[in-house]
Design brief:
Elements lengths: L1 H13 L4 E5 L6 H4 L6 E5 L2 H14 L5 E5 L10 H6 L2 E3 L3 H13 L7 H10 L5 H8 L8 H10 L1 H5 L3 H15 L9 H16 L5 H12 L4 H10 L18 H16 L5 H12 L10 H10 L1 H4 L8 H26 L3 H24 L11 H6 L5 E6 L4 H10 L5 E9 L6 H9 L8 H11 L4 E4 L11 E6 L1 H9 L4 H20 L4 E6 L4 E2 L18 E2 L4 E3 L8 E8 L2 E7 L13 E2 L5 H4 E9 L7 E4 L2 H4 L6 E4 L1 E4 L9 E10 L2 E5 L3 E4 L7 E4 L5 E6 L5 E6 L13
Parallel strand pairs: 1-3, 1-4, 2-3, 5-8, 5-9, 7-8
Antiparallel strand pairs: 6-16, 9-16, 10-15, 11-12, 12-14, 13-14, 17-19, 18-23, 20-21, 20-22, 20-24, 24-25
Length: 733
């Protein structure tokens, strides 16, 4: 604002004369003169320059207003003195006093802020309003925000310096006070680089605090400073002897976390205590600084190291159902953690093996209990899809192929919708836990078939007007009351890429979460999520880790099970007598290890572990949040026989005008040709008891119209559009 007040002084002088002299003995006010971009400014610093300035003004600008900028006091003027006395003068010789006078003149503020701060404020005042100046004048706000200026400087050091030598010098001085770094007069990139190095050095010594910690926190949180951080971290040379135990938990260096993992692996191999690693992980994860720079697997490693406390509960399990519940509520999270660790460290077996071995100790305790109760196992996934779709209301079922319970449990725990209640029920898959078996059971197909189309046809005969489609085809055009979404990517990729597919599963969790939310938004009261089977991650295996095939008259050996026509005696295997595509006997290893067969290992299913055969039957259902205004299409019969090139959609409302929820609603009417949206109405606010103007659309190739809540995306009603089969006689009838 000081620049505006200065300009007002210049313009006031120009009203009387065409010549104004600005005196500035110390040159401190140059930044104000530099704002006079649309004025003719001639500078003079001595008598000779005064003479030249006067000559130039009279010769070239006789009829134009001119500002003479004299870097000398009024008492030193010679050839410009006449202009100062007759035309006017603006004195900046005592800049603090000039600013003080302006604050009183314009704001009636009698400031006691010292002169240096006032000058600094003036240089930084561009873009700030009167309120800002009042706070500065009253001492309520520091004119020079070291935090904001440091960030602006680091974003573009060169551009910051070009703002003005005074501001730049002030900033460098402040940097020196914070870091002890002296100004050497080098290019601005040098103090910028030195500043970041100082921040990183203090992180390693765990001594970063005050304004520098605040600066670091902002740099790691702000989106526009990511490149600054990347460049600084690339340039910074981490010492080879960094001790992760001594660094700040706020640090941003993945290499330090990786160093900790290498050290942890060695400690596990040597049978040493993991306390210091747990302490490190706890402090890292508690820190709210540099969150985006912390590897996601840190929390997973912490879970594996601290799982023993909850693992004690395994000993108390007294039934197969107890084991299944324990797996869902506790162990599934350990499985999810190991999946993340596999993804992060699969290329480094030396680090991964000790972590994998620790996990296997916990898993063995669970599996020993599980197999103890093997005779209690009763598959119950038969006809699940039909059973839930037969319930009243609008219902959707997401059927995953290889959708392990731990994946759905992760979605459940991260699901955010206060109006949705989740019931995490479970089913026992039919054995062996393979696709052609589990899918037939879910669809209720007996005799079993390997043909997916036959399974769909079977369900269509059981459930009237059910729609079965791939999950990626879901959009607002889907209006089925009963819907089955097929989600098969996990099993396909797992069998193809083995452990290499694990990095994709996090994305599938997001997709599954989004599909559930979309279905809820579309008005499905219940969204069930289930699967044909789960899977195990066998991890890094040596040949000796694999189960030998028993020396028995077997007929078929798969990775996770054996089929036979006749029984054989092997007390190390679980025997089940149940027909599976003509084989009478099934045998399962009491482990998650595969049998010695040809093919890749890492991802597997078909066996008898909880990971493979305890499958989700989760119910995401909407709890009624109140009675809303009902909106329906009242002319469905007309839409089923449309003559001509256009049609009208007529709406009917039903609600209580005295109820805030049921009195009005914002809606859109959308028209589809197949799954493609072709036309859409603007947002319409409909009210209870009031008629709604019919909405006209072109016929074209459209076949469906849907009424959608404009805010929640809930589908309120739909109708089919069919062209009339009668001949169009052009209005002759």
């Amino acid at each position: 604002m000081i620049d505006r007040w200065f300009r007002q002084d210049i313009e006031a002088s120009f009203k009387e004369h065409k010549r104004v002299v600005v005196t500035d003995k110390g040159g401190n006010g140059r930044f104000l003169v530099d704002t006079l971009h649309d004025c003719i400014v001639i500078e003079a610093g001595n008598e000779l320059e005064e003479l030249h300035a006067r000559y130039e003004a009279e010769k070239n600008y006789a009829d134009k207003p001119v500002v003479f900028y004299a870097t000398m006091g009024q008492d030193q003027l010679c050839y410009l003195l006449e202009y100062a006395e007759t035309g006017g003068v603006v004195a900046l010789d005592n800049l603090p006093q000039y600013i003080t006078n302006k604050l009183w003149e314009h704001l009636h503020e009698n400031t006691k802020v010292d002169g240096a701060k006032l000058v600094t404020a003036a240089k930084l005042s561009k873009g700030n309003d009167e309120n800002w100046w009042r706070k500065v004048a009253e001492g309520l706000e520091e004119p020079f925000s070291i935090h904001e200026n440091l960030i602006n400087f680091l974003l573009n050091p060169t551009a910051y310096k070009e703002r003005g030598a005074d501001i730049y010098s002030l900033l460098v001085e402040k940097i020196g006070e914070l870091t002890g770094l002296a100004d050497t007069g080098q290019s601005p990139d040098v103090p910028a680089s030195s500043l970041m190095k100082n921040v990183f050095d203090k992180l390693l010594d765990n001594k970063l605090n005050g304004p520098l910690l605040k600066l670091y926190d902002s740099l790691t949180k702000m989106s526009n400073t990511r490149q600054v951080m990347r460049d600084a971290m690339t340039d910074y040379k981490l010492p080879n002897d960094v001790d992760f135990r001594k660094v700040s938990p706020d640090h941003c260096f993945a290499k330090i976390d990786e160093s900790m993992m290498h050290d942890l692996a060695k400690a596990l191999n040597d049978g040493k205590s993991t306390t210091e690693y747990i302490d490190y992980l706890s402090s890292r994860l508690r820190s709210n600084k540099a969150i985006d720079y912390k590897p996601n697997w840190l929390k997973d490693v912490q879970l594996v190291l601290t799982f023993s406390a909850s693992a004690a509960g395994i000993k108390e399990l007294s039934s197969l159902d107890d084991c299944a519940i324990y797996y869902r509520d506790h162990f599934s999270w350990l499985d999810a953690a190991m999946r993340h660790i596999f993804v992060a460290w699969l290329s480094n077996p030396k680090v991964l093996r000790p972590i994998q071995y620790l996990y296997e100790q916990y898993e063995k305790e669970l599996l020993d209990k599980w197999f103890t109760f093997a005779d209690q196992y009763q598959p119950n996934q038969y006809e699940f899809i039909e059973k839930v779709l037969s319930k009243p209301g609008r219902i959707a079922v997401i059927v995953g192929d290889g959708l392990r319970l731990s994946i759905v449990e992760t979605v459940r725990r991260n699901f955010r919708n206060k109006n949705v209640k989740i019931e995490p029920d479970m089913l026992y898959a039919d054995l062996p836990s393979v696709t052609e078996n589990g899918m037939n059971e879910l669809y209720g197909c007996h005799p079993k078939t390997k043909n997916a189309e036959e399974r769909r046809q079977h369900l269509s005969e059981l459930i009237e007007n059910v729609e079965i489609m791939d999950a990626d085809a879901l959009n607002e055009s889907v209006t089925a009351q009963k819907l089955v979404l097929l989600f098969s990517d996990i099993d396909q990729l797992g069998e193809k890429k083995q452990l290499g597919a694990l990095k994709d599963i996090d994305q599938y969790e997001k997709i599954l979460n989004d599909k559930i939310k979309s279905l809820i938004e579309m008005g499905y009261q219940h969204v069930y999520v289930t699967s044909d089977h789960g899977f195990v991650l066998t991890g890094i295996l040596d040949e000796a880790d694999k189960r030998p095939v028993p020396n028995q008259p077997v007929r078929k050996v798969e990775e996770r099970f054996i089929l036979a026509d006749e029984p054989f005696n092997d007390n190390k295997l679980i025997e089940r007598q149940d027909d599976f595509f003509g084989y009478k006997y099934q045998y399962y290893a009491q482990t998650d290890r595969p049998f010695r067969t040809t093919g890749s290992y890492g991802y597997a299913h078909g066996g008898f572990t909880p990971q493979e055969c305890v499958i989700p039957a989760y119910d995401f259902h909407v709890e009624d949040a109140g009675n809303h205004l009902k909106v329906s299409i009242s002319n469905k019969s007309e839409l089923a026989d449309v003559a001509g090139g256009s049609f009208n959609v007529k709406l009917h409302t039903e609600g209580d005008a005295t109820n805030v929820f049921a009195s009005s609603r914002k809606i859109k009417v959308v028209v589809f040709a197949g799954s493609k949206q072709t036309q859409k109405s603007p947002t319409i606010e409909v009210q209870a008891g009031k008629s709604v103007q019919p909405i006209e659309f072109d016929v074209d190739e459209n076949d469906k119209v849907v009424v959608i809540d404009a805010e929640t995306k809930e589908q309120l009603d739909s109708a089919s559009i069919k062209k009339s089969s009668a001949r169009d006689l052009g209005g002759l009838l």
